[in-house]
Amino acid sequence: MPDTVRSVLGRALDALDGLQQLGEDVDDEWTYVTDLGDAWRARLETVAQLRGDELLPDARAGAVDRAIDEAGRITDPHRAIDWMSTFPQIVLVALGERP
Predict the structure, then answer these.
(1) What is the 3-state composition of the chain as percent helix, strand, coil, each rounded to the nearest 5?
(2) pLDDT, tens digit, 9 for 90 and up, residues 18-76
(3) Cα–Cα dist 58/1, whole Å
(4) Were both Cys, which of 10, 15, 40, 55 would link to 88 (CB 3.0–4.6 Å)?
(5) Looking at the domain assignment, is residue 99 inside a domain?
(6) Under a CB-based contact definition with an 8 Å cutoff, are residues 8 and 57 in contact?
(7) Which domain holds residue 79?
(8) Which residues contact 9 (CB under 8 A, 6 or more apart)?
């Protein structure tokens, strides 16, 4: 059965949380990381509310899953902060949304 927007975004939000937790290790950036995480979480949750039950073609769900996999490979806190800006935009584009 195909994924829904809600299920894919649930996985993406978990990955974003992981990036945020890693990024919070940089003490000087804690406020920025928290604000960035809150902003992107709100944007992704809005999409989930609007399109949650929509079925996704396998290619779109797969694109999000590949981005999630890549985010999960990040171990450097500074790179995690960079990816907190990039990752949600990749997810949105994969879903056919404007970043």
Answers:
(1) 80, 0, 20
(2) 999 999 999 999 999 999 999 999 999 999 999 999 999 999 999 999 999 999 999 99
(3) 10
(4) 40
(5) no
(6) no
(7) 5-94
(8) 44, 45, 47, 48, 52, 91, 95
Q: According to the model, what pLDDT value does residue 2 have?
A: 84
pTM of the predicted model, to two decimals? 0.94
Q: Is 8 exposed, middle or buried (0-12, 13-18, 19+ CB in 10 A)?
A: buried
Is residue 68 within 8 A of residue 12, CB to CB? The reply is: yes
Whether the predicted pLDDT of 99 surpasses 90? no
Q: Is residue 15 one of the residues assigned to a domain?
A: yes
- As given in the structure block, the two tokens for residue 57 are 């073609």
